[in-house]
Amino acid sequence: MRARWRCLALLLLLGLGGAAAAEEDPYLWLEEVQGERALAWVREQQQAAEQALQARPGQAALAEGLREVLASPQRLAPAQQLGEQLYNFWRDAAHPRGLWRRTTLASYRSAAPQWQTVLDLDRLAQEEGERWVWGGASCLPPQARRCLLSLSRGGGDAHVLREFDTVSGRFVDVAAGGFALPEAKGGASWVDADTLSVYTDFGPGSMTASGYPRQVRLWKRGTPLAQAPVLFEAGTDDVGMWTWADDAPGRATHLIERRTSFFAGEQYLLRAGRLVKLPKPDDASATPFGDQLLIELRSDWEVGGRRHAAGSLLAIALERFLAGGRQFQTLFAPTPGSALQSHTVLRSAVLLLRMDDVKQRLSEWRYTQGRWRARALPTGELGSLSVTALAGQRSDRYLLTRSDFLTPATLELAEAGRDARQTLQQLPAFFDASSHAVEQLHARSRDGTAVPYFIVKPRGVPPPAGGWPSLLYGYGGFEISMKPGYSGVLGRGWLSQGGVYVLANLRGGGEFGPRWHQAALREHRQRSFDDFIAVAEDLIARGITSPKRLGIMGGSLGGLLTSVALVQRPELFGAVVSQVPLTDMRRYHRLLAGASWIEEYGNPDLPEQWAYISKYSPYHNSQAGVVYPRVLYTSSTRDDRVHPAHARKMVARLQAQGHEVLYWENTEGGHAGAATIEQQVKLWALSYGFLAEQLMR
Question: Known catalytic residue: 308?
Answer without folding.
Answer: no
